[in-house]
Structures are given as structure tokens and as C-alpha cells.
Amino acid sequence: MHIERVPNRNSHPTVLLRESYRENGKVKKRTLGNLTGQPEETIEALRVVLKGGRMMPMTSALTIEASLPHGHVAAVAGVMKSLGLKRLLGTKQTRYRDLVLALIAQRVLQPASKLASHRLFNTTTLGQEFGVDDANKEELYKALDWLGAQQERIENRLVKQHLQDGSMVLFDLTSTYLEGRQCELAEYGYSRDHRPDKLQIEIGLLCDKEGRPLAVEVFPGHTGDPTTLTAQVNKLKARFGLKRVIVVGDRGMITQARIDEDIQPAGFSWITALRHSTIRSLAKADNWPSLFDARNFAEITSPDFPGERLMVCRNPFLAEDQGRSRRELLAIAEQGLETILQAVQEGSLRDCGQIGKRADRVLRKLKIARYFNLEIAPGRFIWSRKQAVIDQETALDGIYVVRTNLPEKEISSADTIRQYKSLAQVESAFRDLKSSLDIRPIFHFRADRIKAHVFLCMLAYMVEREMRIKLKTLLFTDEAPLLPDDPVMPREPSPNAKEKTGTRRSPTGHALQSFSTLLEQLATLTRNTVRAQWEPAAGKPFEMLANITPLQQEAFRLLSISP
């Protein structure tokens, strides 16, 4: 038996169930039934049966044996490939290289300890994608050791790709705490994590002028900011072979001593800022308020800084904030001092030592003792403002001074200020390292492992940074903030950013995402291992992706990759 379609000139074909037979040696056909008008799936099912197939419900025809989140893995792996990360780590395929690549991807997707990472490899397609689904904990620690041994070579390649003589480099320092007390690098120091109770390490990050990370170094936790700069200058000169570099660093990093002893002897240039104490001294010698009649910055020179240009900047928004903060602190302090005065006048507080302690407690807590005169005697307490000091500091509200030895023909005043403000990109990198990439807390106790862990986090940040740039139209990010003519003023939101803020949607109509929620959305694209139950395909598993959503499709388009 078979199904035959008989065409009709002016209507749909007739569908007949027919049977072939022989009569007097000739093959003839007879019609057993007319299937015209039957649903197409019924006709097709009958055709399968007639050919020897077996009918079964669709739910039984295919068996999904495994389903793993895949889209977010494909996105990260694709960006790593576009960055050439595999070749950057090593031109030859090795087990350790594959493990390190997997650890970098895992750090972007779901930061975890090395102990947990090898278990997580098989909760997504990550283990399959990098060929490490059979990895164990010991292998991951050895892979981390391998990465530490390759750090210098990898950094050399990054610098060669992105820096040349005359390039500008950004350098900044942060700290992060550790768990445990066994590491030789762990020391108590100034904690930027606000955890003075924890031992910590210092991390110095070197970036190009776009904020791309190029090298990272770990220092003992009590290392002073200026001390770390010496190592960076030596690295740029000796290891990277750069003869001329413009080093951009903050006022705590690039001190006069570091300029005299490190930067200038190396033949490098600098862009940094002056400390507040130096600014106060300069302000006494010049009539600074008149500098800002026309705009918020002005270039001056000073005999105290021969061969340098000084850009005096006044940020009106910062000035307003500082003034308001001072007024609030003064009000709180005066309320506390009045309480002490009342106790003295009532006779409940007479001892000079006790009066002094209470007044000191009020002013030291608020860090504004310099604003007050105090007169203390037995049973007597008088306080008054040092108005001259307050007026002097008020006049400097919102003011900072950028310094450089670069001549004006190489960089204008406005661009010098902008380059100094670009240090915010390194600060942003530190925030990402500490938040989304979870560099802390660190559980390693060997110094070499801690250094390798920090380097691994830097490489993961390089990947995440690239992803954020490419996906920015889908994120709560301004793709192109407007650069104001006045370099002191903050960047203004672009028209696209204003529209995104109002509609909460991307230009292509998708709901805006944070980076983490976008990864979660991509993860819903699963890769499924499917086994067919019909002959002759029965027993042969194959892989297929779930249906891709419009948001996922747009994300992969922006990343220029295929899942």
C-alpha cells in the first residue's frame, strides 16, 4: 500500500490510499480509500507506517538526556576568542592552558574558589567548551601555578600590543583583604575595603589610556603608595623596553620624591595633582578667585615647580558639596560644644582635664578641631570659631591642581585635565575586580598563588570589560556620553542615554539589563543532548540548542559570535 497524490487542474490534489497488484502479469493499482481533506500530519503518519515505521507520541519520539545552560558560556568563550586570549596564554595547546582559559571564563560567569570551580564546570557547558569537564581540584591549583609562571611573558605581549614609546599609562593602587594569617604578603595597612581588622595585600594595576589592563603587581599590605611606583617605572623601562612614557597617577602616588628619584631619571613624563597642603601654600601667593571669572580652569606657573605647567581647576559641584558638608559638621560640632558649655555652667563639669577630653572627643570625631579656639579653666569653658581658617578653606572648595612637565605643544591644558580624570577608569576596574569578579576574600596562603590569582582576575576583567563595551546598548550604560568643552565638568548623558533612562529599553526595544542579569538571560539558552527512539536513528544521541530568544539573538549579534 502507498499514498498517492493525483493532481487536479483547478483544485487541490486528490490524496488516495492505493494498493498495487498483478493481473495477468501486469501491475495495476486499486484505490482503497480517499484521504483528501485529512490533516497533513495524519497523512504523513500513515505514510511512515506504510513504509515500516513505528508510530509513537512525540513525547516518546525524542528523549532529552541532558540540558545544560550554554548561552552565557558561548558569549564569554566567543569574546575570549576575539581577544586572542588562547594565543596570548600560549601558542601550543596544553592541558594547563585549557584549564586556565576555563578558570578565566568561570571567573566572569560565576566567581568561585578553585575548590568549587571544578564542580561548577559541569553545571554548564563550560567544561565541554574548554575540554576540561574531567578536571579536578589538584589540576586547577597546578594550572594556577602554571599561569603565575607565564605572567611576565603574557604581560610583555600585552604591553607590546598596546603601548609604544610616547604612550600614556595609568597606574593606581588598591588593597584587598585575605582570610588566614599564613601569607608572607599579608600585613595590616590602610584598608580601602574599610576592614582594618583584616590582613591585606596591595594591588597595583597598570592600564593604557583607554583603561585596558596590561599588567598587575601584588605588594605587601603595608606598602605605601609612592613605593609601588618605583617598581612600575623600573618595569616600564627595563622589562618592557620603553624609552619614553607619560605616567598618570594620583597625588598620593606620584610625589615629588618619586618624580626626582624615579620618573625624571628614567626620562618619563608625568601627569598628577598637588596635595591639599601644597595647594594652600600656592593659593596664599596668588589671587586665585580671579582665575575663574571666565571658566573653571586656568594654567599658571610657579617657581616651586620649575619646568612644569599647573592647571588650577574649580569644580562648582564639588565646591557646593564640600561647603555643605563643612556647614553640617560645624553645626554638629557646635551643638556638642554647647552641651559641654551647659554642663560647665550648671556646675556638673568643672575639671579642666574632663572638659578638655569631652571637647577633644567631639572635635576629633568630626576631624574639624582646626576650626575652633578653646579656652579651658576650672569651671570655665569658652569656644569660638577660627573664622579666618574657615574662610581660607572655603575659598579653596572644589579646587584641585593638575601638574605636568609636558609642553603645551604636546598636550593642551584641557586635555591634561581630561587625562588626569581618566584615572577614574582604573578605579572602575578595581570596583569590577572587587564586585562582579569577586577578587576578595582571598583564601590562598602561598605568595605565588595569591599573585597568580590576582593575575587571573585581571585577565577575567579584560574579558568582562570587552563584553560590557560591546553589549552597552543592552545595558544601563551610556554608549557615548557627551564630552563637555569644559574639562572640569562631568560628562553629560547622550540623547540615547536619556531615552534609555526614560523608556528603560534599548534602541532595539529590549528591556535594559545589568551585566549580571544579561548573563542570566543568555544562560537560559540551553544545549540539549537528545536521543531519538525511531529506527534507524535509535540509540544515536545528538545535540541541539533551545530556541533562541530575540534578546539573546541581539546580544550575540553585538558580540559578533554564533552560539
UniProtKB/TrEMBL annotation:
Residue intervals passing through the bilayer: none
InterPro entries: IS1634_transpos, RNaseH-like_sf, Transposase_11
Cited Pfam families: DDE_Tnp_1
GO biological process: DNA transposition
Domain of life (superkingdom): Bacteria
MF GO annotations: DNA binding; transposase activity
Region: Disordered, residue numbers: 485-510
Domain Transposase IS4-like span(s) in chain numbering: 170-462
Protein's recorded name: Transposase, IS4 family
Phylogenetic classification of the source organism: Bacteria, Pseudomonadati, Pseudomonadota, Magnetococcia, Magnetococcales
